[in-house]
């Protein structure tokens, strides 16, 4: 038998190592950037951010969440659930105890990553969705964007009110939040299936992404309006008008910002990408913090939705595709914030104050309305041009919950803590617990079902137009 040259073995080993490092080079770069930021901060502030500080504890949480997400992704499972679980573990084993000042800082930071999460929902859709194809199936889109979502939301409202004893207004807030699907998981899975040409010929991908986008927009809008009404300190008349006023301000501001970002700076500007990225990002943050200062917290999410969508649809007409650098800039920021977002969300869960009965009722509030949504979705597409398996696949696409629940799940709790209202804190804690459970329960199951059933249920044909 011919012996292998040891140098050949070594070179093969080195090649494999370099390939693995290349695959994760962006993650390594992000970790190094984080460590450099900490080193600079430590040089300035000293022991206040030293090794025993809360800042370092959060950095460890970031690294642990990132590693947990990576390990679970090796099993072809979405990483968000593992990041949330890591946050829950860190909180309940006592590894991190945040003081009131740091909690307030996190509440401020939450506004930033809420806007970033929304931007990462809207930009890929605006840049990648083929609106001419959407128009051809507009009634199917509107049908799926209304009936199944309404069925799930009503189910959540009823279960949370009668089982968890949430007031009706809080139950509506919860329903609008949990009924939002995970566009990030859905788009990621569908892009992988699209590469295999699964189901593209019937426009199934376009249908699912369009419906998911409308779902996210409506849920964010309703959540913002109801949140404003709950925490409004005005009289009843102004509280009722609070929602419409926030809608008008948010959509007007967001539309104006989106139009500005479409055309400024001009297309031949040397620094076009960074300038438009900064304009859009800082403009959305200005709307968020400005809206809060004016007492209209819903302006931030509504403005961000509108700005991201208006800007990205305009850029698409200018020839920019879904992989344009501006979209990738926000995607990179999200990769950095993602383990922080999901880890901190998990850290809000104190298992010592929860009992088995409450957890069971919370799970029922998630699962039963979700199953109802799946059934209604299947019935809504039953008479369409999709076959039985494709109808089932469309229905299971609504299972994953991640981004909206992570970005908005703790917002009400932050506001309740600021008011130091025990009743509101209790209601907001229920909203948070259900948000966390919805991520842990649905994102792994939904992602696996989409990826496993897609190649089996969808007809594989190369279409003439494969734009998503």
Secondary structure layout plus pairing:
Layout: H1 6-23, H2 25-45, H3 54-73, H4 80-92, H5 100-128, H6 131-136, H7 138-162, H8 168-178, H9 183-195, H10 204-230, H11 236-263, H12 272-294, H13 299-317, H14 325-347, H15 356-380, H16 388-396, H17 403-408, H18 411-419, H19 422-457
Helix pairs in contact: 2-3, 3-4, 3-14, 4-14, 4-19, 5-12, 5-13, 5-14, 7-8, 7-10, 7-15, 8-10, 8-19, 9-10, 9-19, 10-11, 10-13, 11-12, 11-13, 12-13, 12-14, 15-16, 15-19, 16-19, 18-19
Write a short abstract of this structure.
The protein has 468 residues and is an all-alpha fold. It has one domain (102-457): Na+/H+ antiporter like fold. The protein has helices spanning 6-23, 25-45, 54-73, 80-92, 100-128, 131-136, 138-162, 168-178, 183-195, 204-230, 236-263, 272-294, 299-317, 325-347, 356-380, 388-396, 403-408, 411-419, 422-457.
Give a description of the structure.
It is a single chain. The chain has helices at residues 6-23, 25-45, 54-73, 80-92, 100-128, 131-136, 138-162, 168-178, 183-195, 204-230, 236-263, 272-294, 299-317, 325-347, 356-380, 388-396, 403-408, 411-419, 422-457. It has one domain: Na+/H+ antiporter like fold (Up-down Bundle). The termini are far apart. Helix 12 crosses helix 14. With 468 residues, the chain is an all-alpha fold.
Q: What percent of residues adopt helix (DSSP H or I)?
A: over 70%
Series of H and E elements? HHHHHHHHHHHHHHHHHHH
What is the overall silhouette?
globular
Q: Looking at CATH, which topology would you report?
A: Na+/H+ antiporter like fold
From the alpha-carbon coordinates, what is the Rg to the nearest angstrom?
23 Å
CATH architecture: Up-down Bundle
* CATH class placement: Mainly Alpha
Report the strand count: 0
Oligomer designation: single chain
Mean pLDDT: 81
The main β sheet shows up as:
none
Which spans have pLDDT < 50 for at least 5 consecutive residues? none
Give the DSSP E fraction (strand runs of 2 or more residues): under 5%
What is the count of DSSP helices, taking H or I runs of 4+ residues?
19
